[in-house]
Design brief:
With 155 residues, this protein is α/β, with parallel strands linked by helices. It has a single domain, classed as YbaK protein. It is 28% helix and 25% strand. The strands form three sheets. Strands 2, 3, 5, 6, 7 and 9 form a six-stranded mixed sheet that branches. The protein has a two-stranded antiparallel ribbon with strand order 1-8.
Length: 155
Amino acid sequence: MSLQSVRDFLGLHAPDIEVLESAEPTATVAAAAAAHGVLPGQIAKTLSLWLRDQAVLVVLGGDARLDNRKFKEHFGAKAKMLDAQEVVHWTGHPVGGVCPFGLAHPLPVFADVSLRRFDLVLPAAGSIHSALRIEPERLARITEARWVDVAQLPA
């Protein structure tokens, strides 16, 4: 159902975007980058977080880490990860396949500026074997994401 919900979402908002399926799991940044022949930073990882009492998604470059100080400064609260059951409940996607498309529940989406370093990024597409290629600005537009600066890039 998760992969299909992403396909349905894309059919409405970006029918020209193709879902890429891999025979090998791409649930980690390293595996996804290797499978798709891109830099780890181009993998758009989606974090499922609690912001006070609301689930939110933050999409950031695969080589970036959530910067707790920046997050707290921006949102006025600490980030707390959803557990695996909460992730599936709120997003409809399994851990490793989470993306901001085809969600089970409407959630606020935030796109970190770390994505803007690349012309194309590859978020998961609802399963641990799927992804898609999309421009960061388009990802933000079709998911109604707000741009934030809450990540730390590698040194």
